[in-house]
Amino acid sequence: MLDSGVLVLNRSYQPIHVTSVKRAFALLYQGIARAIDREYRLFDFQSWSALAADTHPDTVGTVSRRIRVPRVIVLLACEHLPRARVRFSRHNIYLRDGNRCQYCGRGFQRAELNLDHVIPRSRGGITTWENVVCSCVACNLRKGGRTPDEANMKLLRTPARPKWSPFHRLGSKRPSHQDWGPFLAHMNLADASYWNAELLEN
């Protein structure tokens, strides 16, 4: 439970990261973050730990009681904006393609996969998101220095640059928590900002 995922929002309520329950509790206790619920209410460590935990499915035990696990936290001072680009790397190509050969569709361990240039470099193909895919050894050898059409091999999908998300590094292990829903839709992020904005006194 302590290693399961907690969605981290910046102070503008934009998802920027996924951290562990253990780290989330540390941030709450230190006053660096606040827990936020599906109704956009903010809680410090004291008020969060005072919530009833007996009817909640995710809890952790302390010496004296059980505490609900926060599934979403807001960093109080962080204005960091999510990165717009995913770095072009071998690791991220494997994540994009799900460790799956893009010709035969079978999943493999990373050590059993190659990176294939859809249009071979010998034919002017370049090393970009749009021209590199995961390929198993057998399919790579079968395709050789030909294009997929010439080799009579069809790609599972057209390769493209992936969009950044706070889950990108998690790949196929991306967790799913119901409490994340309101904070992953842009409209609801605006709602969260609206409900928690400080009002000016007259």
Structural class category? alpha+beta
The span between the termini is 46 Å
Radius of gyration, CA atoms, in whole angstroms: 22 Å
Strand order of the largest sheet: 2-1-7-3-4
Q: Domain count, please report it.
A: 2
Q: What level of helicity do the residues show?
A: 10-25%
The gross shape turns out to be elongated
Q: Give average pLDDT, whole number.
A: 80
Order of helices and strands, N to C?
Answer: EEHEEHEEEHEEHHH
Number of strands: 9
The helix count comes to 6
What portion of the residues fall into strands of 2 or more residues?
15-25%
Low-pLDDT regions: 168-174
Largest sheet: 5 strands, mixed
Characterise the protein shown here.
There is one protein chain. This protein is of the alpha+beta class. The chain folds into 2 domains: 5-83 and 166-196, no CATH class; 85-163, DNA Binding (I), subunit A. It has helices at 21-29, 45-49, 90-97, 137-143, 181-184, 186-196; strands spanning 5-9, 15-20, 33-36, 42-43, 59-61, 66-68, 72-75, 113-117, 132-136. The strands form 3 sheets. Strands 2-1-7-3-4 form a 5-stranded mixed beta sheet. Strands 5-6 form a two-stranded antiparallel ribbon. A two-stranded antiparallel sheet has the order 8-9. The longest helix has 11 residues, at 186-196. The termini are far apart. The model is unreliable at 168-174 (pLDDT under 50).
